[in-house]
Structure formats: C-alpha cells, structure tokens
Amino acid sequence: MGQSTSTAAISSRREINHSHRPKSKSTALICPMQHLEDNDDCEIIDGGDPDYISELPDECLAYIFQSLNSGDRKRCSLVCNRWLRIEGQSRHRLSLNAQSELFPLIDSLFSRFDSVTKLALKCDRRSPSICDEALVLISCKCRNLTRLKLRACRGLTDAGMEAFAKNCKGLKKLSCGSCTFGAKGMNAVLENCSSLEELSVKRLRGITDGAAAEPIGPGAAASSLKTICLKELYNGQCFGPLITGSKNLKTLKLYRCSGDWDKLLQSVTEHVTSLIEIHLERLQVSDVGLLAISNCSDLEILHLVKTPECTNIGLLSLSERCKHLRKLHIDGWKANRIGDDGLIAVSKNCGNLQELVLIGVNPTKQSLESLATNCKNLERLALCGSDTVGDPEISCIAAKCIALKKLCIKSCPVSNQGLEALANGCPSLVKVKLKKCRAVTLEGAEWLKNNRESLAVNLDNGETEQQDASASDGAQENGGVAEFPTPAVPSQMAAAAAAAVAASNMAGSTSRSSSMKWRLGLLSGRNLVACTLRRYMSKTL
Amino acid sequence: MKFCTVKQYFDDENNNNVTNGIATTVIPLPNKHLKIKANNKEMEQYEQELLRNVMPQELTKLILAANYLNFKEALDFFCRTVANAIQNKSVDYVRKFFGLESDFEPGEEEKLCKEFAWSFEGVDED
C-alpha cells in the first residue's frame, strides 16, 4: 500500500478501506479529527471523532494484539506512541538474542516490555553470550517470570543462576540447553523456586565428572516438580536425588545420558510411584530397569527408544503391572530383543492401549492379531522398518482393528495389494500414511483414495529423505540395514572422549532419530514431509 | 445470562455506547455463531465478507459494542478479524487502515526499529 509517507500526510479515509475504490493521491488534510464526510454507508454515532480506534479501550487493543505474531506485534508497536505503549505492556512472551551486545539494551527493553512472564534467551555457539550481570538485571526487571528458556548462554555461571533464582522465585518452568553452569547453579534454582514444575536440562557442561560431582537435589521444589527431562548429560546420574526426591513427579524423560540407569530407576521408583509418562532413549537400561518402572502402576505413556537391553521379558513384567498403558512406542533398533512375545503380553494386559508405534521391531500376524482383538481402543498404529510387516499383516490389521483411526507404515515390505485390504477394512480409519514402502506406488495410493473417499491417503516415497537418514544418530540408521547395536554401544557413550562422542552419538539439536521425527509428525495429525518434519521436531523437545 | 447487558441496554434509552446499526449486527451474532460454530470454513467466509463490507471504523465499533455487551464470542471474533486484516502488513498500511497518524518524534521510529530489530527472534514456542 505504498502511498504517501506516513508522517507527512494523511490519506483520505475513503481510499483506505476498500481496495476496489480508486486510490486517489493523498490530499493534504490537516488532521484526522476534522475528516467526516465520507462515511455515508456506515453508521456514525455522533459525528465526532472518526478515528474510532482511539475509542477502543487499551484492553481491547491488547486483545487484538494477542492474535498477532511477534513480527506483526513489532510492526504495530511502531504505529504510534499509544500502540507502542499498549503492545509493550501486553507482551507476555519475549524471545531475545542473548548475545553480549544485549546488555546495554536491557534497561530500555524491559521498560517497554514490563509484563513479560515467559522469556527465552538464546545465543548462538559462535558469539559470546550475555553474562551473569545481564541475567541478574533481567531478573530484577521481570520479577513475575514463570518460564525461562536458556540456549547456549555460556557466559552464565552458578553465581548468576543463583542471583536470578532469588529474584524470580515464582518460576515454574526452566529449560536450559548448552549452558555451562553447574550443580551449584542448578541447586540454587531448586532451592529458591519452590513452584518449579518443569525442569529440562540438556548438555550442562559445568557438572563435573566422577565422584566429586555435587548431587542435585529437589530442594524446595520437591513437591512441585511434575516433569523432569534430561538430555545428553555425561554425569546425569548426579540428578538422581532430584528425581528420587520429587515425590509428585508425573513425567520423566531421559535421552542419551551416560551411565547405568537400572540402579537409579530402582531407587527412583521406590520413592516415586506417581509417574504417568516415561521416555527412555539411548540409555543403558535393561529389563531390571523395566521391572523397576513397573512399580508405577499408573503409567500411561512409555517410550523405549533404542534400548537393546530391554527384552520381551522386561516388557512382559511391565505390562503385568502397568495395566493402564495408553501409549507405547518402541524402537527396537532391529535388535529383535522385543517382538511377538512382549507385544502379546501387552495386548493381554493393557486393554486401554490407544496408540502403538513400533520401529525396528518385527511383529508377526500373531501379535498383530492379539493386539487387534484385545485392544479395542487402539486408534493409532505406526509400523516402521519391520521386515515382517507385509500384505498379509496389513490384511490382518484391516480385518481386525475396529477402532483404528490412523495408520502409518514406513519402510515395510507392503505393496499395492496390501492397500486393497484397507479399502474395506478398519471401519474407523480416517488417515493412512505410507512412506518409503518401495512396492507401494502412486497408482496404488490413487486407487485407494478413489475407492474410499473419506480416507486421507498420504504417500511419500522419500525423494526428500536424503538428509533424513544421515542426520540421525551419526548416520547409523538408513531405513534399511542398521548397524547391529551391540551392548557395547551404550557404554561407548561414557567411555569416549567428549569430542568424539559429540560427533558421533550426541548429534546436534536438529538431528534426532528419523523414527522420532515422523512419529511426531504422525501423532500431531499432520501430513508432514521430511523437511517440515525436522523443522517441527526441532522446535519441540 | 449473556444478554443481561442487552436487556439493560434496551431499558436504558440514553445509550450512546451502542448504535442501532451496530446492535443489529451484534445481537443476531449468537445465532449465527451457533449455526456456524462447527464449520471453520464458513466462519472464514463470513469473516471475509465482514471485512469487505464493513469499514475499520465499524469494526472497532463492533468491538466496543461486543465489549460493552459482555459478549465474549463476538469480541473474540471481531478482534480476530481486525488482527487478520493487519496481519503481515506494513506499519504504513496499518496506520492508514485505522486512519492513525504517527506521533513519534522525527527519527524516533527509526531508532526504535534499529534498537530492537536484532533483539527479537521469531515467535517463541513453548
């Protein structure tokens, strides 16, 4: 709408509002207050001020801003002084580049944005980040902070975290990734923030190795903590007392943390039985750990990803005691330690199962039938990288899974013929996704679409998948033959030098196992292609 | 329950907050809402129509009316419509859309832009 410059002249009102009306050159009007005559076709109440937006109370304007994204809000704030003020005061969520250059701007930034409750401070790995002084200043200005996200703020030390925590005692959620403070700083947060509900820690470099590591305890947050997530920690075991002491913990997620977790899970589940959701990925955990977890009889969600020490036996013992299991994800890493036996046990014990994702696991008709028959609420099923899932297995699913709404098949020996079964089976089916199944062609997908119109069919034959395989797990997974994971692999994580481990196993934040990627895509109910998947996934977690 | 204010409005003759014209648009809304609540596409179409036929001033009047009548759904709807109208638009466009004038000091706007440009990232998801 490039008409006159904004400050010099005000355009006629008529031409602003209707794009089909001819746009005349701006006439030099004196001020908006005197402009009245054009509004014939709209009701004017008292022929007064035509600038109605000024009549809107501040709260209404703020309400409009709420529907806008950050960029739009920024533009609105530049409209006029009133908008600048209201936008700033109604902004509760802020995301800042936390480079060291931010420091001199903190005063004015937080005078303008004086109601921030959710703050993200993100630096990149090449630039120096803000230091303690900056964080303390921010904490003085944002006393009501409820959420803080820190990324690569390597300038922050234990002292800074402590000072911050003392100012922001109402903190509910802390997420820090690639920071370098240590146990002291972590403990300071836990001591001061007694309402802390969610703690997520990834790659905390300041936690020293070995026995000298200061244990991290729940502090004042022992009853408030509901979610703990630990990723890529060399010395994650020092968080043991924290987990064990969080008596109301509902969600525990452990990804790629070194050390033996069986013992720790045993001690955790002796004290904490309230867990509802557990994710274990690339951990040294075995059936002993699974048995420990089975103490949590309210468990509803379990993810076992690339934990080859977990076998059918462990899954069986878990299913016998965790009968409320709703969502189960297993990435067996093609190790064949978990298969029909474990799945049949789950089907018999966990009648509430709604969602099942199997990657690198080889179920046969035996377990699929049992699941279909016994889990009457099974709504979402995903099978990936299974050598045993072919057309007969699809037919079995089609015939027996009455409640199934969403089905995803990836890298399985399914062909167009298998699709035929889906045309008439699975009466509740709403969406089916087929990915990298070489024997499934566009024709087959089209045929299915035409023969079952209410069904959304998504076929992805993987042209965009190039980055996918290589990005995951240091190129171990190629959708076909994977390196056979020996038990030595997890311990390698602990033994290897930092650089080597970082390069191979603990890849950067944008890489995950491709299984996680599309699984997230599936479960979010979107039809995502690989690139969007990665983008989506790198934003979550 | 929703319309206690409406009753009050009709009782109170000296009411300057809501014109007749606006009232005729706002009050039938709940029925319209109920009818098209389930269907998002229809809502979008209705929104588009509203945008085309109603000038910004009227939209803001509608917001005021909905606010006064304590009618949350209408308020949500109108505010969202306004937001959609100014989404991804330049500062100039937004000013003209509402007939506003910049009251910043010369150079202040630029200074604000520069000061905060690099400090912002995109929307921060939870």
TrEMBL record, chain A:
PROSITE patterns: FBOX
Gene3D superfamilies: 1.20.1280.50, Ribonuclease Inhibitor
Biased composition regions of type Polar residues, renumbered to the chain: 1-10
CDD domains membership: F-box_AtTIR1-like
Alphabetical list of InterPro entries matching this protein: F-box-like_dom_sf, F-box_dom, FBXL15_LRR, Leu-rich_rpt, Leu-rich_rpt_Cys-con_subtyp, LRR_dom_sf
Domain F-box: 50-86
Name by which UniProt lists this protein: F-box domain-containing protein
TrEMBL record, chain B:
SUPFAM superfamilies reported in the protein's UniProt record: Skp1 dimerisation domain-like
Annotated SKP1 component dimerisation domain residues: 75-118
Top-level taxon in the UniProt lineage: Eukaryota
GO biological process, alphabetically ordered: ubiquitin-dependent protein catabolic process
Pathway(s): Protein modification; protein ubiquitination
PANTHER family, alphabetized: SKP1
Protein name per Swiss-Prot or TrEMBL: SKP1 component dimerisation domain-containing protein
Organism: Quercus rubra
